[in-house]
Amino acid sequence: MKVRPFEDVVSEHGATVLRVCRAVVGPVDAEDAWSETFLSALRAYPELPADANVEAWLVTIAHRRAVDVGRARSRRPVPTDTLPESPAARADPAASDPDLWSALQRLPTKQRQAVAYHHIVGLPFAEIAELLGNSPDAARRAAADGIKTLRKHYRKDETA
Amino acid sequence: MNTNIFDALEANEAATLTRLHHRLAQDADTADVLDVAYRTVDTPVGTLLLAATTAGLVRVAYDVEGHDAVLAGLADRISPRVLRAPARLDSAARQIDEYFAKRRTVFEVPVDLRLAEGFRRNVIEHLRDIGYGHRESYAAVAAAIGHPRAVRAVGTACAHNPLPVVIPCHRVVRSDGSTGQYVGGPLAKSTLLDLEAA
Q: With an 8 Å Cβ cutoff, are A14 and B75 in contact?
């Protein structure tokens, strides 16, 4: 099987990766995360095996990037209330339903990631476990707990 | 599983993705990982695909060649780092517009001839010397490159010209004066010849 033009990868998986970025790092950082993910992917693309699962590969890159940013942030003495009241101007306003993001943000990081990788991308729990460094069972529980909490808070917020 | 809960994440997605694609093309060029940039341009002979490496224009393709197939071929032969990135092709696209508006007779864009090798490369190089409005027979081209008996091979080389329109294989016609075959179809060939003769 021949390697397809990278343009096909962007048009086929760009939307899913954007949703994952919005869910995992939030509306403000999503566009930077998407851009860095696809630039890294383009750089490495010629070495990708032709039979690789491209979407899982992209999510892995996005995940590592989010982990790196998270580490860099935790080293810096930033205040905890830096999340803006309204979405930043560069993020499209309609995308950042503040209720959904605030509900997602309440989840522990691994739950938020497990929810996004399973319910938005459709990755199997075995692959999610590799990304999160836990077991498939733990990944499944994280996604289930995350969804439960999310429904509770998101629905509450909606009807409030 | 109820996926509706994530609907908000899809809001305004198309506009955002268009913006992000534009940014990716720029970032990739800056980072020197945009091996093949492409765009399309609408002309009287249909939509042409233009593709360029960092060295120059590497491919012009007619609709009938199948743009997707052409891009897949570029990914295979040059590099899979292929993106729709019009900026690198602004000058080529403008010159093609000018050519069809009869405001240009010579193309002045850097070309990358890596897709034409050996004998075919010799033919392509010679075609660049056939001036606007002039015609040369397949036999004359064969003689000019020192292979007078290779008339049929010259025809094949013209059919595989990686840069039709810009490198004027349309100016090569049959000895009896009829236009002959063309990568963009006989109608496109006579359109170009008529344009230059007018």
A: no
